[in-house]
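Record filed here:
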Amino acid sequence: MALARAGVWLLLLLVWELAWRWGLPQYILGPLEILKHFFAALGSQELYGHIGASLARSLPGFAVGAVLGIALGLAAGVGRAFDRMLSPAIFLTYPVPKIVMLPVFMLWFGIGDLSKVLIIALACFYPVFINAYYGARSTQKILVWSALNMGAGQGEIFRRVVVPSAAPQIFAGLRVSLALSFIVMFAAEMINARSGLGQLIRVAENSLRFDLMYVSLVTIAILGFAGDSLLRLARQRALAWQGEPA
């Protein structure tokens, strides 16, 4: 199966490369050309500066949104008062694209990095909250009753029954939120930023530097894949008792 997947990808890349050599528009570079520019950019300090600026916005935003989403999602999932207070507002505002709030955040918090970090945190909050909420609510009642019969208190039931039961869905929400952190970061930097991979793409577009555009896209893809791989590793270690997901 792995060889078949690799063969499909190699075939697609080969077709892409041949099509580029046979005369695709100049704004569509071939895979080998993109790799050449990418490795050339790795030797430049400029790319690392943009990577650092982007990560300094996306990772704190992801962390803040994830922590709040887990805490409030679990609280709403187990407490009726929290559920009635939080859930209507959160489920009502969830469909609204969060990037449209960036101008408002810029008015409230300034045009610096704080407004970008907060808009990323807002986008990351919702998937984690929803997954933690439904993960807590899906806890089997028989497990709670069994813990009560063995003398466990409410705090112990929350730590040892509810949280482990909700953990698989929480990690699913974290993976979605991590991807959103890069997407919203990218959009925010394209709108208003002096550094970052999104700003690099905007500059490359204005100057018709298509090589820089592809270098930025490849870099974002690699960073996103690396972050998702770390989350999957953390999931495997934290949920070793559950085994591999299907």
